[in-house]
């Protein structure tokens, strides 16, 4: 009986660590999904990126909100062409583009191109840091699919254009 307790020791620790990780992930996803539902009715006052900017620079970022109809059509087209030309055709995640980007980056042994859609970039800006890892990307994909299910494309584009960082410390299409 003592022998079986010893062999269960490492597995028990691993199981507890995995359970804790899954609990944290469930909390992150549930929080993000609740926030996604809220975004259908309200504009965010900030993002993970603006909070990080405020912490690093000691100055609060105040988003100057513009309804989609007040944002220049030229800017909208430029963003769509440069960031996600299939924006109105996919459901938030372009798996073909993600795969192509991953394969190119693996082949060249460095990040040459990303495969994130506008919706994925919005989720990253709203909820996550700039850290790049598999777990963050998985959460980003799940929250993006939820965001697309809850919000229309016009609302997603409006949110994106109002919160994305266009340059150092420049957030949104003011």
Describe the structure.
The protein is mainly alpha-helical and 174 residues long. It has a single domain, classed as Penicillin binding protein transpeptidase fold, CATH 1.10.3810. It has seven helices and two strands; from the N terminus they run H-H-H-H-H-H-H-E-E. Strands 1-2 form a two-stranded antiparallel ribbon. Helix 5 (118-127) crosses helix 7 (153-163). The longest helix is centred in the N-terminal third of the chain and has 38 residues, at 2-39.
Can you lay out the helices and strands and say which pair or pack?
Blueprint: H1 2-39, H2 48-57, H3 73-83, H4 95-108, H5 118-127, H6 134-150, H7 153-163, E1 165-167, E2 170-171
Antiparallel strand pairs: 1-2
Helix pairs in contact: 1-6, 5-6, 5-7
Brief overview, please?
With 174 residues, the protein is mainly α. The protein has helices at 2-39, 48-57, 73-83, 95-108, 118-127, 134-150, 153-163, and strands spanning 165-167, 170-171. It has a two-stranded antiparallel ribbon with strand order 1-2.
Largest β sheet strand count, sense and barrel closure:
2 strands, antiparallel
Mean pLDDT equals 83
Rg calculated over all Cα atoms = 19 Å
Question: Any idea what the CATH architecture is?
Answer: Orthogonal Bundle
Distance between the termini: 69 Å
Largest beta sheet: what is the strand line-up? Answer: 1-2
Helix content: 55-70%
pLDDT below 50 for ≥5 consecutive residues: which ranges? none
């Amino acid at each position: 009986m003592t022998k079986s307790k010893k062999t269960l020791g490492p597995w028990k620790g691993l199981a507890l660590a995995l359970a804790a990780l899954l609990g944290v992930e469930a909390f992150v996803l549930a929080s993000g999904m609740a926030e996604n539902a809220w975004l259908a009715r309200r504009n965010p006052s900030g993002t993970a990126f603006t909070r990080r900017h405020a912490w690093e620079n000691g100055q609060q970022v105040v988003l100057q909100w513009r309804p989609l109809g007040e944002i220049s059509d030229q800017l909208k087209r430029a963003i769509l062409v440069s960031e996600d030309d299939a924006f109105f055709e996919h459901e938030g995640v372009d798996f073909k583009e993600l795969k192509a980007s991953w394969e190119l980056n693996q082949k060249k042994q460095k990040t040459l191109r990303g495969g994130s859609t506008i919706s994925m970039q919005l989720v990253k800006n709203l909820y996550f840091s700039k850290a790049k890892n598999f777990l963050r990307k998985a959460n980003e994909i799940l929250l993006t699919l939820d965001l697309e299910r809850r919000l229309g494309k016009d609302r997603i584009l409006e949110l994106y254009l109002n919160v994305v960082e266009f340059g150092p410390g420049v957030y949104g299409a003011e």
